[in-house]
Inverse folding.
């Protein structure tokens, strides 16, 4: 942990005054290492006799048996006695060698920690670096590589950090350790944090003696013997543990019982997300039984896929009762299968022989209730006193309160429990969703200032929650409408999907939202028809409050004389609450504003309180530019105007039109991308994902369904936009067999077609599907930024002899390369990652070619910029650095050229132990000195 870096730094400091030797012995057998040290000792003696100062660094020198230790000690003593300075690093298990060495300065791992990362307060921006790294040099350096400036506003923990962490974990569990020490270390890594008592319970060992060595020599484990506790750095998080799972998986066969014991301890702690990672590694029957026994808790943290997989194993091995399996399958189908739409499909087994803990039965009922309440069923629940069960029960009560029009009561109920619900669970996510939905209806925009909406969408996007995602989609639709924009195609899609899933409550609410949007933009005929349909559907389902709200909307639309629908007879009598009665009076007065009854209504409204629970509907009624809306606004009491936040003029989300020639129209902004003539769809993958259909940008979340986005990216990156079906299955759904994979492909293509045709009917992006066992996009319809970039980059490389043309093509490639190629979440074969690397290399090649052309054209600043872009992709690319240095020197930026050379040379020497080439040293002006030791040159070690 930093000893190799420390030795290399010693070498770099002393190489100008000493003759240096650096030997690295990691993975070398002790006899071989001892012989190399003996040969080195003879060479050092000769150098010392020649009056040379010698510095020797021995990294990870292994000890071996007594004979080998004596031989190594004798060789090191000879070097010290003849005047050489010897620095060496040893692993803790090689302490015998350290004990027999002559007196010297001893430094342990804890002395090598980076103090700048340890001596910070919680208010310092570097405190997160301390929490993630513990001051361990390898981890700190990795964080710096990921962030550049560790004091940036938001710390990014990226691939460099997790790669370094995985390497450290692998070294910490090396085979040269005793089995007892590996057992204790592995237990600490799996638990993440805890006490020595927990280590003793899972290993049946007293860990104190081993912990003493870990406290001194292994800071990664964060051991504190005084407190009898430990806290591992990096691996204490779920992401860190998952990143190191490949290393930990190699220990499962030898320490299977330890994994089972740790799994039980984590379940007892309630750390089910961490337990899920361990359960995926463990293969024993005991682990499968533990997962099934607590399946509801694993479902609660989003691990539906783990539960479904484990149920298959348990069924094959007959590990649990059949009633238990049937019960869990019912729960999983209720949450994740849209086809499970009838109440009979959600009935749990009630056999007298079914022996199951009451807590599990209650959770099963609550989880099934999450689907039943969206279907409009009355779900009676008893609020539990703690944990996930309490949160789910509160969610069910909140949804039913919203259904009955008690929005304020629903918000109070959800807000009083949202913070007490366990973070990162289904209950917490649903309560946050309820809070956002009630806040939107009550006109409170503050609930959208944080990232809770994104967290809700991300959690429900996991496998196994497809049947209850409609509430999150409804929130997006309502929030968009109340903020002055709407997407009727998305609302119609939500209506259809909720109808197929049997989620009647969501369907009626979506119909109401669509009617409100059409009313505000003046499409009165459609608003009246849609609200009439909503009223009829609500009446059939028994949603009497929603039926009344739909009746008010329908009456408002039809009163304008052009509505296609008509209010349900007796719609006024259905408005039973005080708030609804106020809106009825308001609409009636706006319809008949000249009679005596209207004047009486106006006087009554002047003394009425603001209908808070119907605030959203009141805001809809006063919005728009019609005569009826104007009459409603005049009737509003002055005391209400402060609470009525006006809705901005509604607009459709489609704001860019397609152009096949000529100038841009009035719609769209300056930064909108044009669609080329003949092309109907533009796919952008450089620097992020974007799909435009006839100039209209498709919301990215619309393509996440059915993994349509991942399949689209994979097919588009293939030559001729064609990919074989078996290739797509391996890429996107590797856990499916071929038949199931074909169904997934069909669903994904249908989802993509649906999104496209909602914008432009009769536009099919595919050429073929089932006929030739492939999926093929129509290349005549598509325009792709990565293809444009590839053409420009190749043009720059092939324009040899025409510098002006090469520079123009390179600049065009630079503009098109907005960032690295987008990689979807499902890239199981690594195909997209490989294509991203190809494009990175092509970008670097094009930038170097453009920089060289600009240098010859004496456009030095452009040359420096292009060469710098190439070094950003590959910092060891010598031709890019050479052009950069020449361009900087030619433009008079001598100091900057020297600094860039030094930076490159240090990195190059550190990675290769070789000096930069003579050509590059000549570019900076060192070649005339005969290639001697310059400011950062180095000798072969």
């Amino acid at each position: 942990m930093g000893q190799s870096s420390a030795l290399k730094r010693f070498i770099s400091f002393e190489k100008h005054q000493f003759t240096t030797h650096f030997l690295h012995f990691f993975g070398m057998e002790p006899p071989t290492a001892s012989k190399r040290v003996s040969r080195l000792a003879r060479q050092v003696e000769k150098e010392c006799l020649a009056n040379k100062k010698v510095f020797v660094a021995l990294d990870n020198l292994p000890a071996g048996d007594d004979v080998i230790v004596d031989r190594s000690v004798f060789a090191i003593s000879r070097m010290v006695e003849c005047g050489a300075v010897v620095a060496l690093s040893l692993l803790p298990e090689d302490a015998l060698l350290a004990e027999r060495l002559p007196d010297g300065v001893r430094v342990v791992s804890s002395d090598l920690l980076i103090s700048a990362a340890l001596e910070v307060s919680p208010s310092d921006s570097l405190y997160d670096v301390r929490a993630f790294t513990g001051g361990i040099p390898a981890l700190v350096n990795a964080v710096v590589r990921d962030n550049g400036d560790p004091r940036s506003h938001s710390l990014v923990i990226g691939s460099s950090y997790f790669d370094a962490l995985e390497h450290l974990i692998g070294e910490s569990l090396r085979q040269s350790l005793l089995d007892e020490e590996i057992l204790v270390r592995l237990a600490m890594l799996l638990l993440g944090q805890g006490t020595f008592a927990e280590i003793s319970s899972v290993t049946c060992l007293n860990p104190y003696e081993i912990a003493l060595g870990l406290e001194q020599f292994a800071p990664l484990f964060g051991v504190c013997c005084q407190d009898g506790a430990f806290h591992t750095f990096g691996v204490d998080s779920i992401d860190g543990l998952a990143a190191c799972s490949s290393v930990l998986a190699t220990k499962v066969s030898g320490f299977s019982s330890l994994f089972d014991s740790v799994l039980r301890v984590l379940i007892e702690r309630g750390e089910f997300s961490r337990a899920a990672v361990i359960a995926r590694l463990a293969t024993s029957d005991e682990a499968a039984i533990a997962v099934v026994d607590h399946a509801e808790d694993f479902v609660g943290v989003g691990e539906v896929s783990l539960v479904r997989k484990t149920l298959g194993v348990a069924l094959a091995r007959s590990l649990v009762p059949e009633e238990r399996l049937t019960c869990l399958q019912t729960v999983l189908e209720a949450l994740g299968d849209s086809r499970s739409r009838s109440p009979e499909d959600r009935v749990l087994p009630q056999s007298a022989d079914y022996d199951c803990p009451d807590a599990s039965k209650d959770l099963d009922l609550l989880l099934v209730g999450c689907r039943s309440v969206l279907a409009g069923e009355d779900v009676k629940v008893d609020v539990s006193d703690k944990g996930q069960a309490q949160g789910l029960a509160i969610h069910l009560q909140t949804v039913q309160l919203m259904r009955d029009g008690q929005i304020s009561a629903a918000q109070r109920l959800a807000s009083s429990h949202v913070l007490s619900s366990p973070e990162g669970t289904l209950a917490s996510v649903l309560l946050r969703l309820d809070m956002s939905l009630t806040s939107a209806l009550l006109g409170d925009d503050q609930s959208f200032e944080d990232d809770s909406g994104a967290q809700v969408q991300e959690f429900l996007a996991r496998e196994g929650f497809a049947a209850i995602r409609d509430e999150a989609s409804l929130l997006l639709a309502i929030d968009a409408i109340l903020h002055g924009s709407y997407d009727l195609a998305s609302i119609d899609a939500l209506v259809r999907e909720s109808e197929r899933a049997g989620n009647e409550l969501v369907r009626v609410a979506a119909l109401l939202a669509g009617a409100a949007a059409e009313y505000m933009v003046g499409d009165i005929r459609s608003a009246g028809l849609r609200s009439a349909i909503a009223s009829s559907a609500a009446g059939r389902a028994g949603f009497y409050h929603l039926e009344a709200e739909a009746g008010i909307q329908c009456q408002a639309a039809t009163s304008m004389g052009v509505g296609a629908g008509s209010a349900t007879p007796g719609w006024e009598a259905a408005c039973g609450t005080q708030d609804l009665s106020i809106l009825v009076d308001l609409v009636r007065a706006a319809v008949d504003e000249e009679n005596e009854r209207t004047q009486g209504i106006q006087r009554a409204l002047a003394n009425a309180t603001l209908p808070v629970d119907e605030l959203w509907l009141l805001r809809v009624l006063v919005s728009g530019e019609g005569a009826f809306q104007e009459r409603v606004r005049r009737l509003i009491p002055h005391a209400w105007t402060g609470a009525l936040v006006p809705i901005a003029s509604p607009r459709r989300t489609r704001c860019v039109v397609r152009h096949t020639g000529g100038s841009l129209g009035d719609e769209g902004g300056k930064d909108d991308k044009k669609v080329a003539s003949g092309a109907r769809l533009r796919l952008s993958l450089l620097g992020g994902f974007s799909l435009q259909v006839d100039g209209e940008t498709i919301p990215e979340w619309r393509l996440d369904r059915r993994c349509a986005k991942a399949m689209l990216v994979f097919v588009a990156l293939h030559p001729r936009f064609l990919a074989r079906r078996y290739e797509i299955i391996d890429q996107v759904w590797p856990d499916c067999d071929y038949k199931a994979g074909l169904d997934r492909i069909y669903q994904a293509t249908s989802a993509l077609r649906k999104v496209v045709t909602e914008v432009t009917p009769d536009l099919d992006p595919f050429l073929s599907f089932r006929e030739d066992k492939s999926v093929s996009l129509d290349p005549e319809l598509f325009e792709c930024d990565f293809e444009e970039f590839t053409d420009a980059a190749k043009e720059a490389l092939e324009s040899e002899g025409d510098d002006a043309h090469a520079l123009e093509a390179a600049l065009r490639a630079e503009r098109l390369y907005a960032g690295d190629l987008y990689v979807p979440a499902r890239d199981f074969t690594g195909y997209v990652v490989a294509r991203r690397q190809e494009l990175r290399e092509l970008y670097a090649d094009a930038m170097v070619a453009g920089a060289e052309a600009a240098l010859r054209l004496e456009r030095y600043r452009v040359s420096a910029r292009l060469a710098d872009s190439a070094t950003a992709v590959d910092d060891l690319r010598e031709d890019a650095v050479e052009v950069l240095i020449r361009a900087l020197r030619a433009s008079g930026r001598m100091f900057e050229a020297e600094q860039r050379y030094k930076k490159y040379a240090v990195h190059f020497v550190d990675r290769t132990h070789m000096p930069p080439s003579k050509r590059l040293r000549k570019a900076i002006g060192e070649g005339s000195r005969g290639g001697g030791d310059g400011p950062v040159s180095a000798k072969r070690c």
User: Anything to note?
Assistant: The chain has a mean pLDDT of 80. The CA atoms of residues 725 and 774 lie 5 Å apart. The radius of gyration is 35 Å.
